[in-house]
Amino acid sequence: MKEKEMRFGRRGWNEANEVLRTPLKADRGHSKAKENQSIKTKNKKGIVPLFFATDDNYLPFLAIALESLIENSSREYDYVAYVLHSGVSEANVEKILRYNREGFSISFVDVTDKLKSLSAHLHIRDYYTCTTYFRIFIAGMFPQYDKALYLDCDTVVLGDISELYNYDLGDHLLAGAPCEGVNSFDVYKRYVKEVDGLDPDYFFNAGVILMNLKSFREEGFYEQFADLLKKYKFSVIQDEDYLNVLCQDRVLRLPRAWNKTPVAPDVLPREDLRIVHYIMTWKPWHYKDIPYQEYFWEYAERTPFYGMIKSMLDSYDEKAMQRDQEGEARLKALAQSEIDRADGYYKKFGKRYGKRRA
């Protein structure tokens, strides 16, 4: 088995081939958390709205995200978490609702009807599910909030989430960290540049974003998304392609410590980390050599899903690992084929969103 682990361990194949130059460490100076905290707590604690999207397969990892988030976030705020879904088992929901407590509430919101109206126009690859598009609906479904945080379930929150929420968005549509999955590989950087028509250093990963919901509503973001969806089907990075194209020039770039992944070659110590995001096939529940896996298992052991998650790791065999390798190879090939298209999005439509170039 040791020989197979050396061959099929996640590190050692499909490594990053680019040196990242985007901001790395968290800069507390850009967040108004302490300033806002001192003002709001004189009367009433502020509310931080949080959104997740999941299916049954990812509910165990949502529990890990919640464990870490609750432990590391400021008690000076109330947190209201919404879990968007299109069908989850009652048994799993019951396990997640155990995290309800004073100052932290959780609600499950079924978006099946919204999904039906959208799914006919989606182009979903095997890696993605429709849940990745749920964040598009937040602004319209929750008019009571002017801004909110969206987090993927495969995250561990090691910093104070209220600091992230308190970044000043100004007239930006959202705040996000540069996507390490894009910036670590040459083919994806070329895809973003040539197909999306964007600067890869500013292409954000949509798994951790602070959204300006008020501006989304006032500027008709969903209508723009629906229109773009009819015009072009992005097939590689999918919902992130749409979000990045529509929000271009209106994105507050966060340090990568707020969305640090195992993909990039640099490794941050815990004191500099804020959120670890186990993207793509870099899953500690599949491989035993994933960077930052110790934080995942630290919180996994505290959840009611620990036995299930540990069995996922133990049963992930050579065939499954081989499928991961083949899947990533196909994704790179797909990105290259999109680059080679004569009718690619940017070649056909040019710059239609964001600030016009002189």
Q: Can you tell me the number of structural domains? A: 1
CATH superfamily: Spore Coat Polysaccharide Biosynthesis Protein SpsA, Chain A
Neighbour order of strands in the largest sheet? 3-2-1-4-7-6-8
Structural class: alpha/beta
Number of helices: 16
The CATH topology: Spore Coat Polysaccharide Biosynthesis Protein SpsA, Chain A
CATH class: Alpha Beta
- Please state the average pLDDT score: 87
For the termini, the CA-CA separation is 60 Å
Radius of gyration: 20 Å
- Fraction of residues in H or I helices: 25-40%
For this entry, give a set of tags.
Spore Coat Polysaccharide Biosynthesis Protein SpsA, Chain A; two-stranded antiparallel sheet; disordered N terminus
What does this structure look like?
The protein has 358 residues and is an alpha/beta fold. The chain has a single domain (2-348), classed as Spore Coat Polysaccharide Biosynthesis Protein SpsA, Chain A. It is built from 16 helices and nine strands. The longest helix is centred in the C-terminal third of the chain and has 23 residues, at 318-340.
Short description:
This protein has 358 residues and is an alpha/beta fold. It contains 16 helices and 9 strands.
Produce the secondary structure layout.
Layout: H1 2-8, H2 33-40, E1 46-53, H3 59-72, E2 77-85, H4 90-97, E3 104-110, H5 112-119, H6 138-141, E4 148-151, E5 155-157, H7 161-165, E6 174-178, H8 180-183, H9 186-196, E7 204-211, H10 213-218, H11 221-231, H12 239-247, E8 251-253, E9 275-277, H13 293-300, H14 306-315, H15 318-340, H16 345-349
Parallel strand pairs: 1-2, 1-4, 2-3, 6-8
Antiparallel strand pairs: 4-7, 5-9, 6-7
Helix pairs in contact: 3-4, 9-15
